[in-house]
Amino acid sequence: MFAGHFSHRTPSKPAFILSERSSMNGSVINRSVLMLNQNYEPLTVCSAKRAIVLMFQGKAEVIANADGMKIRSVRKEYSLPSVVRLWTYVKVPHKRIMLTRKNILTRDNNQCQYCGTHKGPMTVDHIIPKTVGGKDTWENLVCSCARCNNKKGDRSPEYSGMKLLKRPYRPTFITFIQRNYRIDDPWKPYLFLDSKQFTTIT
Are 64 and 82 in contact (CB under 8 A)? Predict the structure, then answer.
């Protein structure tokens, strides 16, 4: 369903110029918008400005608007998009999240996977130490506080008398979006989230 006031698949001339006089407009056009492929699969997250340009070029349609938010041009006011869908299917390679320290901490919500604390500096721990063949994989790396890291040392959790809060996993692209962006209610059906169980970040 087309949810905005933009013309249906009709490219427009670049007459849509955002007013620079409004500082509110500046922050609004940088707001995150969920972009769906033609088949409604999450493709990426872009700025509202990028989404609006795609819509005016006739390359995307509005699926859902940001509740109560408006954006002004020189002559007109429009509802701000929250979810847009491309008219043409874009074939992209399978998205894999890079294995980095930052992404490990993000996956684990900056929570020590041994004691559960969120306090203090966090580091990345090898569950099976590298000295005994442990590898740099999503399944063998967890977020750990300095205290638990020192307590565990160069041993496995079993030998150090420690237990993991949960089994580590390789995050999907959808998981990455869930953890790294403000999730508006209109995004949730496309990210497989139950709106009653997921609290929107404010």
Answer: yes
- Alpha carbons 40 and 116: distance in angstroms, whole number: 36
Between CA 187 and CA 83 the distance in angstroms is 7
What's the CA gap between 168 and 5, in Å, rounded? Answer: 45
Domain 101-160 CATH (choose: 1.10.30.50, 1.20.58.630, 3.40.50.300, 1.10.10.10) = 1.10.30.50
**Angle at CA 108, nearest 5°, toward 107 and 113?**
150
> How many other CB atoms are there within 10 angstroms of residue 132's CB atom?
10
Question: Which position has the token pair 């969120």?
Answer: 118
Q: What is the mean pLDDT of each run of 10 residues along the chain (202 residues)?
A: 43 41 59 93 91 94 89 79 95 82 91 96 96 95 96 93 94 82 89 51 30
How is residue 182 written in tokens? 């403000």
Q: Going edge to edge, which strands form the sheet with 32-36?
A: 42-47, 32-36, 77-86, 60-72
Please give the pLDDT value at position 110: 93
Q: Which of 110, 60, 69, 122 is nearest to 87 (CA)?
A: 60
Nearest to 67 by CA among 187, 190, 198, 193: 187
- pTM value? 0.59
